[in-house]
Amino acid sequence: MAIGLYGGSFNPPHAAHRMVAETALEKLGLDRLWALVTPGNPLKDNRALPPAANRMAAARALLDNPRIVVTDVEAGIGAARTFEVVRHLKSRAPDVRFVWVMGADNLASLHGWGRWRELAGLTPIAVVDRPGGTFAPLSSRAAAVLRRSRIDERDAAGLAHMEPPAWAFLHGRRLDLSSTALRGRGASL
What we know:
There is one protein chain. The protein is of the alpha/beta class. It contains nine helices and seven strands. The protein has a single domain, classed as 3-Layer(aba) Sandwich (Rossmann fold). It has a seven-stranded parallel beta sheet, with helices on both faces. Strand 2, helix 2 and strand 3 (68-71) form a beta-alpha-beta unit. It is globular.
């Protein structure tokens, strides 16, 4: 089984989150995608973060697809970093082929994530293009470090079965939405 892991605060969830999830399901040939609603982001101010139960309910309503599971596994295991979550899941399900899924905007800041190099060595990564997020992320520090591990998008259907480090940059439909911009316009849960 191949499962995409798509983490985020989903504050609030929006149509671009759905597009990233659907692009990953389609291009990677995944059996499932798990939307991991984080209890907080160590790189952001979490003081105004709505309760996880509210964000999970909103994400479930948005990502209404039988192949998508919305979960708070990160809170359940007490993990604070993506690497810890992926390591835990891989140890609990060694026969599952996981792929970390993220929007291209996150590739630009990946080098600031705790243990990001170890994450890249633990599971393949799929980066889904976002408006205004194509060229800067591909020129980022993490992209430069992982340059030799990038596979062609035409081979992305096999990414889950590749030994890490391996990553692909995926193109598809794009919406110019972000949770930050929506919150700036007063959107909330």
